[in-house]
Amino acid sequence: MIVTRGLVYRVEFQFPAGCAGLAGVIVTDGGFQVWPSTLGKWFATDNFTIGFDDMYLKGSDPFQFDFWGYNLDDTYDHTIYSRIGLADREIFQARYLPNVAYDMMQEELKIVQETQEAARTAILETPFPWIKGTRKEVA
After folding, report:
1. How much is the mean pLDDT over the chain?
2. Which of 35, 33, 32 has its CA nearest to residue 43?
3. Which of 3, 57, 130, 133 is deepest in the core (most CB within 10 A)?
4. Which of 34, 35, 12, 7 lies closest to 95 in space, CA to CA?
5. What percent of the chain shows pLDDT beyond 70?
6. Which H helix or E strand runs over 124?
7. CA 69/CA 78 separation, integer angstroms
8. Closest CA to 52 of 60, 43, 61
9. What residues have CB less than 8 Å from 21, skipping those under 6 apart?
10. What one-character-per-residue DSSP string does 86-118 give?
């Protein structure tokens, strides 16, 4: 599955009725097993959707997840449906990562402070902009 850079916040695997635990799936990222998180374990069930929240940051190439499956049913083929929720921009990731939200808020506060300081300086330099002429210093 091709993905973008971002934060995986939700993962779901839907096993239709009839799988009877005979079909399973794992997901890897660059050869490393990501889901299920226990190495060597597989998701396998029947007529059930396995879904969970996660915080998996996909920040480097390759931007894809590899799905590996098996089917031990000698009579029927089975299809397992997968869904991944991924926040690709920091503004969306901030919902799931409070430290990102904090950093973004600090940047915004810094911009507001700089804007207010520039306005204050402008007022001090010309407190009465309707008066024409140069400002004379009092000795």
Report:
1. 83
2. 35
3. 3
4. 7
5. 83
6. helix 98-125
7. 10
8. 43
9. 44, 45, 46
10. EE-SHHHHTTT-HHHHHHHHHHHHHHHHHHHHH
Report helix, strand or coil for 121: helix
Tell me which DSSP letter residue 44 carries: -
Give the pLDDT confidence of 101-110 residue by residue, as tens digits.
Answer: 666 667 777 7
3-state SS class at 10: strand
Q: Encode 9-19: b = buried (16+ Cβ within 10 Å), e = exposed.
A: bebebbbeeeb
Q: How far apart are CA 47 and CA 59, in angstroms?
A: 33
State pLDDT tens for residues 69-82.
999 988 988 999 99
Name the residue with higher pLDDT: 87 or 93: 87
Q: What is the pLDDT of residues 21-67, one digit of tens each?
A: 999 999 999 888 999 989 989 999 999 999 999 888 888 888 899 99
Closest to 59 in 3D by CA, of 4, 132, 126: 4
Look at residue 125 and give its three-state secondary structure. Answer: helix
